[in-house]
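User: Please predict the structure of the protein below. I'd like the answer in structure-token form so I can feed it into my own downstream comparison script.

Assistant: Understood. Taking the following sequence of 431 residues as input:
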Amino acid sequence: LDPAPAVADSAVSAGTVKRRSSMAAWKGLSPSASETSVNSACRFAADISVAVSMAGFTMRMAHIIEMANRHGNNLAAIMEFEQAGVEPGQAESAEDLTSVPTSSRNFAAVDDAEVRQLATLTFDIHKYRRGDAPAQRLLSYVRHMLTDLRVLAPCAINDSRLHKFLSAIRAKYRSVPYHNFFHAFDVTQTVFAMMKMAKLDEVLRPEEQFALMIACVCHDVDHMGLNNAFHLRAETPLGILTSVSGQKSVLEVHHCQISMDLLTRTHLLADTPKDMRVRIQKIIINCILATDMAVHRDKTQEFEAEFGGGAFNKDDEQHRQLAMMMLLKMADISNVVKGFDISRQWGIAVTEEFYQQGDRERRAGLEVTPMFDRQRKVELAKGQIGFIKMLAIPFFNVAADAFPDFRQLVATAESNIEHWERVLESTREGA
């Protein structure tokens, strides 16, 4: 995925450097920092080209993704249905956060009681969603988890650059009901807890764990609260530019591009050995692409074929790659395997985001996706029961066959079905 600024040749003219210096100043970076980053950008461009190739993209696809990012970074401001969507000013900008002076870029103090919960599935992200606790603390928790995994030193990650990168990623998430930074952190913390649960932190290599955690943080960056089908049907810039390439994973490709872009701009991997750097980029791309629900059935079958009967081989690199993809996918839909109160609040949030897309579809003259139709008043409990039974439980059963410690997640999902059935029954009785 071609990073921005893209560098086609190492011989960069003085005029180009000057233009980049001006752009960097506008984005909150000093001109001197921009000038000294040109050679580094060249190096990253070459590395990412290799990573893209390894992840199965053609360079033509990389250029299309770059075009999509240019048109899609501020999608709400340029697409036909902008007036009904999220205004760009509703979210912090990455540029604002990266402009903080280096001396003040410190990770916030952490809550020791909360830290102890990070390795469990009882961590309550909703207190941060409600504003009961400072969201900035979440960046410190990401750093704590990476430190606990002992991956920062092996990957040569600088603390200041890590904070700059996490701040930039956080700022790129939009203020939508569900696919926001709180969801991204929730997925990251859940993968951390699941690795501990199944002792996969003792199996995956340091660079693999680091890449997986970064993929979690980035996996929905700049999500507009609209799914892939909307972008394709409404022919948004991202939808058009992705479809003409023969791809269907509109958002996942977009998330990958922004992730690679910010890895470059913040120099997070500047000191990481080249071979390791390329491998990290490859893992991030593959893991994010695997989160497209359109490929969920195929991925489930692949996991089952490879890992059925406990056939996971820790010495097989491909098996470890599949395990990382499975972990991210598990965490992405993990709301249903957590306590009912946590699960219920996420169910409300995702339903509201669906309804908002349905409202936009109606205003745009598109056929409204049935389960996104606010006017039909599809019961939350019924939707959650269907999702858990038809999608979540079969997938978590496959995961549990490979890693028996995950069997408890299936039990929690079944318990949540019982909770939702009681809610559904009480709703019917009150009607």
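That's the full token string. The CA atoms of residues 114 and 123 lie 7 Å apart.
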